Structures are given as C-alpha cells and as structure tokens.
Amino acid sequence: MNPTINQWIERGKDLPVLSGSIANILSLTDGTETNVSQIADVIKRDVSLSAAILRITNSSAFGLLRKVTTIDQAVMFLGFKSLRNIALGVGVFNLFPPQEKDFLSKVWQRSLVTGLAARELSSMTGNKKKEDAFTIGLLHDIGLIAFYGYDKKKASELLDKLENNGRTNLDDEKASMGLDHVEAGRLLAERWRLPEEIIDTMIHHHEEHFIQNNNGNLSRIIYLGSLVGDIFYLGGKTDSIKRYTEGCQKLLGISPEDADMLLRNIHPQLMEVAAYFDIAVGSGNTYEDILSRVNEEIINITISNEAIKHHLTQAFDRERALSSQLEEANRNLKLLAGKDPLTGLFNRQFLNELLEKEWMRAQRHGHPLTIIMADIDNFKNINDKYGHQAGDEALKKISELLSQCLRNNDYLARYGGEEFLFVMPQTDLKSGCLAADRFRTAVEKLILSFDQNNTLTLSISCGVSTAHPEKKYDNIDALIQKADQALYEAKNSGKNRVIAK
Known about the structure:
The protein is an alpha+beta fold. It folds into four domains: 15-95, no CATH class; 101-140 and 191-300, no CATH class; 302-337, no CATH class; 348-500, Alpha-Beta Plaits (2-Layer Sandwich). Helix content is 61%, strand content 9%. The protein has 24 helices and nine strands. A five-stranded mixed sheet has the order 4-5-3-8-9, sandwiched between helices. It has a two-stranded antiparallel ribbon with strand order 1-2. α6 (80-95) packs parallel to α8 (130-139), α7 packs across α15 and α8 packs across α13 (196-202). It starts with a helix and ends with a strand.
C-alpha cells in the first residue's frame, strides 16, 4: 500500500536531505556564541555554495554599495541570519533543480518573483528583514515541490489549474493530494528543521483574514509578494493586480504609484537572479506584456444591451484603469451607443443619463439648469411633399446647423422624430431664451435645395424652461414638462417663435 503524502514526508525515505553545509550553517546560527569565522569556514568548504552566495549577494536586486569578493565580506555585510537564509534558499533549490519549462521551473520562477518582490517591499517599508523576506518568498510554496516529489501527474494537474484560474484553491489540493500545499510545506520545513520564524510566516501566506489582523509586517510582505508571483505566472491577473495594489496601500501604506513601479521594475531583477539559479526566464514576460494580455481579457468582456451598445468593464477599480488608450476606447464606445444613427446627435437614452449628471452637478454647486425643447415646424408636409428621404436630409442639415451654434458646455440631443432638446448648464432663463432665439434665427436662414426646381426654407419653434436644482421643489421631470408646455404654446401661437415657462 502506497504511503500518503504525510507519511511520505515524515518517513523521508525518498525525500532529499539538506546538504551537510546547510545543516551546519543552520546549527551554527541557532547558537548564541557563533562567530564570523565559523560561518565563513563552513561556506568556504562548499565551493558551489560559496559561488552561489557571492553571485546572489552581488546582484542588483540586493543593492550592496560595494562588491563582495570573499565569503568573509559576505558574512560581515549580511550578518548571521541573512547569510543563513540565503544559503538555505540555495540549498533547498539545489535539492530540486529545474529543467527548462518543466513543473519545477515554473514553480521556482514564480517563487523567485515572490522573493524579489518581498525583498523590495521590505526595502520600501524600512523593514530590516530583507533577506528573510527574500528567502521566505523563495520557499513559500515548497509544498508544491513536495507534491511534485510525491506524485508528478497530480501536481502538474494542480499547477495547470492554478495557471488558468489564478487564485489557489486549497480545497482542490486536499481533494487531490490529501492535504494542501501549505500543510505539505510545513511538514517539509519541519522535516528539514528550518527556522521557526520562516515556518510561521510560510504557513499563513494564503490567509487574508490572518494577514489583515496581524500587525507583523513580514507576514504582510510575503502575502503581497506572493500576489506579485501570481500576477506574473497565474491566470486571473486583473483580480491579482487589484488585490495587490489595494493590499499595498491598506497593509503597508504603499501608494498605488509605488506599487505599480515595483511591478514594472521586477522583471530585470528576475532575469539577473534567475541566471544565478540556472532558471530560464522568458524575456517577454514583463509587466507591460502582462498589461497587454489583461487588456485583451477586458476588451473581450463586453455587454450588449442593444445592437450598437457595448460597454467595456473596468480593468481595475482604481483610477489609473488600464491605460489611456483603453480609456479612450471605452469613451468612444459609450459615445457610439449614445448617438442617434441618422443625425449623429446624442440620443434620448444618453440624454437621460446626461440630465441626471447635470442635475446633480447643478444641485451641488447651486447653478441654474436650462433646457430648450425645439420642434421643426410643418415637418409632416416635407415628408408628404418631398418624401421621407428629403425629410431625413432636412433633419441632418438642421442637426448640423444647430450643433455649430452650441457653446462648449451645451449639449444637443434628438429627442424623438423632429424634436430636439438642448441642455444648457449654468444658464438662467433669460440667457436660455436668447440662445433659443439664436437657434431659431439660424434655422430660419437655412435654405435646402433638393434639385434645381425645389428649394425649401424651414423654421423651428422653441420652448424654454429653467430650474434651480438646489431648491427642493424642482425636479427633472417638471423641468422637461414645462419646456414641453412652452413649446406647445409656441406652436399654437403661430410657430417660428420662442416661449419661456
């Protein structure tokens, strides 16, 4: 009978063991009287470990002001615990070296990003445990490596789900393996007798409730660092970016701009450090590439209420959204859905939304809001005499003319049929009447020519109404009703005139 994964880890029969050098370093740094020379002597006897430590500590990610050329200098610069942690990360990695594009390569790439991000977050918050953060980030998912050692097929299936869906489902892992990777990682770390502070931080990196209620910055840093790993290597990137950005601000006080800058700068560090670990990382996996893929996801998620109306969902709930290009596309799509296909003016649906916004703005600032309802006089006669094609042409010409008469802050919509409605923010009744008469005069001067023998002059009647939204008794419906009544009076009293209510 095959052992369970718990038994497999606890027995350790087929489980790799940490090298003697790493075991000695862990033993030395647990003591209280350890000196620099003892640590240095242990490392110097392990040539490959010495070379790895020097390469990593001299990388730009670690930002030492002076190049470290000897192990003695490395010990002096880094200190006991930092050196122990870097050696520990190298030691565990050497137990499970990756092959190009295999399971271990994917896990280690993601873990490297997590470690580098955690170290950078430590620097940004003034946390002195930067090397601890790097090592814990590097080892935070060793439970997945335990899965791989126990059952390669099941481990690969779980990783495929992660890459497609994004967020880790610990219940899926328990159903497949008998326990989740956090518990597997804890058992593995205890088997190797890793330091308690590393184990404690590792086992909580998926517990958002614990992270939010725990004041320890290191736990929060590893949690956010793991989200950076998710952004670069798992699906559901939009959600991961949102949780990472919000978490940086809420948990560590890091602004969205600085959080974003970390994501943009992490790839060059990854390329450099990954080379020291002999991990092949694609040069095209930058944050800009990720944003491009997120854009494609979002553009494909559109909602169609009508044939011409398409909405793009927001990429992030924060103000930056995706990019200025995506924001511009979103605005254009919304404008398209709000346009009348014949005249190119705003349609009634857009008008309703616009009136709500302008009403609230006027209410907030105490400004008057004026609307003008206009109607083409005797329009039915045009259709009857010249045909509907001529009527459509008349509507288009008048729409074009009236649009040219607008001020920058005014809006014009086709209200229905041959009716138009003007929205004029910060405009009182007198100014509204003057504007309506200007519109009326412009139309009166317009001459339409359908052919050499047929020319046509037109006129419009206008009803003007003004409201003061800060006054409780005014409302949008009453404003429109008064303008409509005024238009009715203008039509009945001879047409081609302006009446105000």
